[in-house]
Amino acid sequence: MAAAAHLGSHEHEDHHHHGPPEANRSSRVDPATLGMMLFIISEIMVFGAFFTAYFFIRVVGGAEWPAEGDHLPKLIAGFNTAILVSSSFTLHYAQEAIRKDNRRGLQLGMLVTFLLGATFLFIQINEYVHVGFSPQDHAQGTIFYGLTGLHGAHVTIGLVLLLFVVIRSFRGHYSSQSHLGMEVPGIYWHFVDVMWIVVYLTVYII
């Protein structure tokens, strides 16, 4: 009798259930973090396409890099690299601060990170103005502007994300128990920094 009642209750629950079953949450990775990681993987593929064109020109085509008569500002780019790498350290400082409920440390770290990123982008744009060649001049110019411009676009997106985090940090939206909203943009910003190191070493140094 009890079994029949249980069966009837189960059938009643099934009757009222609509739509697909709930998603399996067996993964320990937060959905937002997982989504960002998958997005970064797709972006690595995009950069890979540009690097393939770059190596095709230099290795397969044997073209001079940069093109004859052109010079890349290695010193300025190196200084700019140091600025961007520093922003990863200030971001890490901000993340550690909020884990300890240090709101002032979070605000300072995020603000400095944003300003360093904005400085990097400003110097990059200034470099375009004074570099002395344009994308349409030769294949090397196309690849140079393509790779550095693609990275610059990612920096711009990162700065927008950082700005939101800065604003929210000054509004007191984060705590040691709730800071995923800054962790996910932080993953993206670290990716942008690492990718620039690869671009710098490949385009300016090698």
UniProtKB/TrEMBL annotation:
This is cytochrome-c oxidase. Residues 1-28 are annotated as: Disordered. Belongs to the cytochrome c oxidase subunit 3 family. It is found in: Cell membrane. Keywords: Cell membrane, Membrane, Transmembrane, Transmembrane helix. Residues 8-28 have a biased composition (Basic and acidic residues). It is an enzyme of class 7 (translocase). It comes from Solirubrobacter deserti. Its EC number is 7.1.1.9. The chain crosses the membrane at residues 34-56, 76-94, 106-123, 143-167, 187-205. It is a multi-pass membrane protein. InterPro entries: Cyt_c/ubiquinol_Oxase_su3, Cyt_c_oxidase-like_su3, Cyt_c_oxidase_su3-like_sf, Cyt_c_oxidase_su3_a-hlx. Residues 34-206 form the Heme-copper oxidase subunit III family profile domain. It comes from the Bacteria. Its main location: membrane.
